[in-house]
């Protein structure tokens, strides 16, 4: 049922061979991501556990993700504090524009060179003693190093099984208490899947938020039972929001007048609202001119002209032409193969792409609602909580400091035992491949 468990236990016993530092006084950190949790998903559902957490801790009105607003890139921003053009994980899919090879989400998780492009995720820096349960990016090696303890999701994985969620929470508690880890990142593939499949306004999505809320209740109860309440800082966040897909007046590149795929050397289309194109030699101007006014909701740019505010295009992996579409509209390529009712990937300034940030624990103020901030700032907050020196990043500690208890002494930098938590990879692209 869960083939990777064997691996987890193997990793656990391996760690036991290393002398475990005995109970340090440092505060521990648990970073939890519920994929695709739109900022306002708790406003039309009864969420007693999220409400209690907000009352006892800090809640941002919302958090602005990085662009493009998709899973692996946005999680890697949380883990590195960098925008996509600076960390290099510019898509969920690995691709090679010379050969045309593209790898789907799950396979891309295993391509080290895709992730290890100059930025170290916090668990490597912190570790260099970390561990991970299914977090996007948790499977790769960075500069030859990987996280100590991790649980990687199998290819076919039921991302919505609540029993399994609780088992993973129990593993996390064990890793904190028995293995004395200081940092764990834990990933859940919902409510993203429900949002894609049924749409963000559906009953199914609302039911899933109730499940997420119960899970948060279970998590906080287990934190108490494990004696971790006074020294564990819990952060609950996500990668992006969700938008209802508009099924009329669709953008379909194949049907654009004077456009032909025979002018194209490489294309990455049919991935929500984002597209990457390499025209054949000498065809760039022509392709650009036929696409740029093809549809009022479609934006087409040459790489050098892509709006700077997105912090997206200035990277060698970005192709000569980039496409993105307005909220609600997805980009169809040769054939229509996208049937999701909900989608993301849109402009990170669109309200429906905004996501959540909540935190509770000894380092955080109580009952505080803070103004929105960008997700590039989460990394330096994690470093501050763990007392480690951040790598170069695009965030600012000033942006997140107001949520910390004034005068709360933060731990001095020293070696920690870190573990990167549970990343349940998304089932969301099932409808696409
Ligand atoms: C893409 O494929 C070409 C041809 O096989 C190869 O030379 C190049 O190194 C590859 N690029 C990447 C990033 O893998
Ligand atoms: C990032 O990857 C690109 C190709 O995909 C490569 O040209 C570049 O050198 C890499 N940068 C680092 C720092 O690894
Ligand atoms: C996943 O597990 C839940 C039970 O927790 C079940 O309701 C659902 O049907 C399962 N989904 C799939 C695709 O098996
Ligand atoms: C849910 O997960 C539990 C524990 O991993 C497993 O025993 C059960 O069969 C799963 N249910 C479904 C419907 O996948
Ligand atoms: C398509 O090409 C024809 C012939 O070159 C030209 O007359 C027409 O204006 C073009 N239409 C568009 C939308 O570019």
CATH architecture of the largest domain: 3-Layer(aba) Sandwich
What profile does the largest beta sheet have?
8 strands, mixed
Bound molecules: 2-acetamido-2-deoxy-beta-D-glucopyranose
What fold name goes in the CATH topology slot of the largest domain?
Answer: Alkaline Phosphatase, subunit A
| Distance linking N and C termini | 23 Å
Strand order of the largest sheet: 7-6-8-1-9-18-2-19
Gross morphology: globular
- Strand content is 15-25%
Indicate the structural class: alpha/beta
**Rg from alpha-carbon coordinates:** 21 Å
Count of extended strands: 20
Q: What is the count of distinct domains?
A: 2
Distinct helical segment count: 13
Give start-end ranges of low-pLDDT stretches: 1-24, 421-433
Whole-number mean pLDDT: 87
Summarize the amount of helix as a percent range. 25-40%
Which CATH class of the largest domain is shown? Alpha Beta
Considering the protein shown, what is the CATH homologous superfamily of the largest domain?
Answer: Alkaline Phosphatase, subunit A
């Amino acid at each position: 049922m869960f083939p990777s468990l064997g691996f987890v236990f193997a990793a656990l016993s391996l760690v036991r061979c290393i002398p475990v530092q005995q109970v340090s006084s440092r505060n521990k950190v648990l970073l939890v991501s519920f994929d695709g949790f739109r900022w306002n998903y708790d406003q039309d559902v009864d969420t007693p556990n999220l409400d209690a957490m907000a009352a006892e801790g800090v809640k941002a009105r919302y958090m602005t993700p990085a662009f493009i607003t998709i899973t692996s890139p946005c999680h890697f921003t949380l883990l590195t504090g960098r925008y996509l053009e600076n960390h290099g994980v510019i898509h969920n899919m690995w691709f090679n524009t010379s050969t045309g090879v593209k790898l789907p989400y799950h396979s891309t998780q295993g391509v080290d060179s895709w992730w290890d492009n100059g930025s170290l995720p916090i668990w490597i820096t912190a570790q260099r003693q970390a561990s991970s349960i299914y977090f996007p990016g948790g499977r790769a090696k960075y500069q030859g190093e990987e996280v100590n303890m991790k649980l990687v999701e199998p290819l076919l994985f039921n991302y919505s099984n609540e029993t399994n969620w609780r088992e993973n929470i129990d593993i996390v508690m064990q890793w904190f208490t028995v293995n004395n880890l200081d940092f764990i990142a834990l990933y859940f593939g919902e409510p993203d899947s429900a949002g894609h499949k049924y749409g963000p306004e559906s009953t199914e999505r609302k039911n899933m938020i109730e499940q997420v809320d119960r899970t948060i209740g279970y998590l906080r109860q287990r934190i108490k039972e494990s004696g971790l309440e006074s020294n564990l800082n819990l952060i609950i966040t996500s990668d992006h929001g969700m938008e209802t897909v508009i099924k009329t007046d669709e953008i379909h590149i194949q049907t654009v007048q004077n456009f032909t795929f025979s002018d194209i050397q490489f294309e990455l289309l049919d991935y929500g609202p984002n597209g990457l194109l390499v025209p054949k030699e000498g065809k760039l101007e022509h392709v650009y001119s036929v696409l740029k006014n093809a549809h009022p909701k479609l934006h087409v740019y040459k790489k050098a002209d892509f709006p700077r505010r997105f912090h997206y295009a200035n990277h060698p992996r970005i192709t000569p032409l980039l496409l993105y579409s307005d909220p609600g509209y997805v980009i169809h390529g040769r054939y229509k193969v996208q049937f999701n009712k909900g989608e993301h990937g849109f402009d990170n300034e669109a309200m429906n792409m905004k996501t959540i940030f909540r935190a509770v624990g000894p380092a955080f103020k109580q009952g505080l609602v803070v103004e929105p901030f960008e997700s590039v700032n989460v990394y330096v907050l994690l470093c501050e909580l763990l007392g480690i020196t951040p790598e170069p990043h695009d965030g600012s500690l000033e942006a997140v400091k107001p949520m910390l208890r004034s005068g709360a002494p933060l731990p001095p930098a020293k070696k920690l035992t870190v573990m990167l938590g549970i990343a349940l990879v998304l089932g969301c692209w099932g409808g696409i491949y």
